[in-house]
Specification:
single chain; mainly alpha; Growth Hormone, Chain: A; 0% strand; globular; cell membrane; MFS; membrane
Length: 411
């Protein structure tokens, strides 16, 4: 019952996120009429506020368990979107970003310990695979619904979507605390032998000075800032303002991306397992390079609208192939490099770097989004750096204890 309740809660929260997923940047630009730099500032505040609380959340989780921490987090996640939906000024938008950022910083820091405690460490990979499919189905449906609604009712639909997002996280908190967390105790994870990092008490700064872990944190930053942050916060604006396309095209773009993941994930996962995690990550960066080339062509070539929409959809599908290789490969690399008895702190560090990437991506790329050379060239350069970080890395040894993932790489 507790496991079923968890998936119901997760589905509700993801559906709420999907309602605003493709529209936040457009809402800020068109309804509140913020400049591109101010939109970037919103995403920066959102992420930086999460970065501040993230290490504390990991340490709190290591000591007291993930359930109350997660339930506390959704208070901010519920208030933030509601406040944004009621906003009419930059100051109110900033306040909404603070609430949402703090809530998200705590929430995503404890997702891996939450799943490990509820389902067992050996089932983390399977649970995250299921969550990723749920995420893409819910995001595709909710994103298309909200995009269509905005096309029909404009600003009112924007604001209702944000109110729905806040309500979804409130329900998540009620279910997790009332039907899941109150019925279970948090077992302390036993440290594995043979790793000197496990001989000292966990500290929230350990992941950032761990030489084995630092390259993965840098890759997480690239994946977040120049991959997912672009899909969330920059490409919708580019499609609207550079491409001159209606809002519904933004929703179609993201819906096709999500549906492609749902269709391809199981087949790509089998391939990823066969070739290994490191080889899969090389494919991720190479495939995303290809997708960015396609995206640039859809914006710079003088083509009929229908042809450009087809290129944008193709861009979304190719990007999705990279995502499908990412979800079963990068997260096990992080888990295999994390000390078991510091899972909360290392998970929080990965989540923190993901959040920092969400701030960095729009803040750096929104000011140059109208310059095709700087924008698309910058994305390609980031992917090349990701490939370079993988150059000297070998496949990790697999074990049951290392089958987990971290939440930061799968927003």
């Amino acid at each position: 019952m507790a496991k079923r309740a968890f998936f119901i809660a997760y589905s509700l929260s993801i559906f709420g996120t999907g309602l605003v997923y493709p529209l936040t940047a457009i809402f800020l630009r068109e309804s509140i009429q913020l400049s591109a730099s101010e939109v970037g500032f919103y995403f920066a505040v959102l992420a930086i506020s999460g970065l501040v609380v993230n290490p504390l959340a990991g340490m709190w989780c290591d000591r007291q368990g993930p359930y109350r921490v997660a339930a506390t987090a959704v208070v901010g996640q519920a208030i933030g979107p509601v406040l944004l939906g009621l906003s009419n000024s930059p100051s109110a938008v900033t306040a909404a970003a603070l609430f949402t950022g703090v809530g998200s910083g705590i929430f995503f820091a404890v997702q891996t310990p939450l799943v490990a405690n509820l389902f067992g460490k050996e089932a983390i990979g399977e649970v995250y695979a299921r969550q990723y499919v749920i995420m893409n189905i819910a995001t595709a449906f909710a994103g298309f619904l909200s995009g269509w609604s905005v096309g029909q009712w404009g600003d009112t639909a924007f604001r209702i979507a944000f109110l729905g997002n806040g309500l979804s996280f409130l329900l998540y908190g009620i279910i997790v605390l009332g039907f899941v967390g109150s019925r279970l105790k948090y077992p302390l994870l036993v440290a594995s032998e043979g790793d000197a990092r496990r001989k000292s008490k966990s500290r929230p700064w350990h992941p950032y000075v761990d030489r084995k872990f630092i390259p993965l944190l840098l890759m997480q930053l690239i994946i977040s800032a120049f991959g997912f942050a672009q899909m969330d916060g920059v490409l919708p604006v580019i499609i609207r303002e550079v491409g001159g396309m209606p809002v519904i095209v933004v929703s179609v773009f993201l819906t096709c991306n999500c549906l492609a993941v749902v269709v391809m994930q199981s087949k790509v996962t089998k391939i990823s397992k066969r070739i290994g995690d490191v080889a899969s990550m090389r494919l991720v960066f190479a495939i995303w390079c290809s997708s960015f080339v396609i995206g640039s062509l859809s914006m710079v070539l003088t083509l009929p609208l229908a042809a450009r929409v087809i290129l944008i959809i193709f861009f979304a599908i190719v990007f999705a192939v990279g995502e499908c290789f990412l979800s079963p490969s990068f997260n096990p690399l992080i888990a295999a490099t994390s000390p078991t008895d510091s899972l909360g702190s290392y998970s929080a560090a990965a989540s923190m770097m993901y959040g920092f990437g969400l701030a960095l991506g729009p803040a750096v790329m929104l000011p140059v989004f109208k310059n095709s050379v700087l924008y698309w060239g910058g994305l390609l350069a980031a992917m090349v750096i990701g490939l370079a970080l993988l150059k000297t890395r070998s496949e990790p040894k697999q074990s049951t204890d290392q089958a987990g993932v971290t939440s930061g790489s799968v927003q």
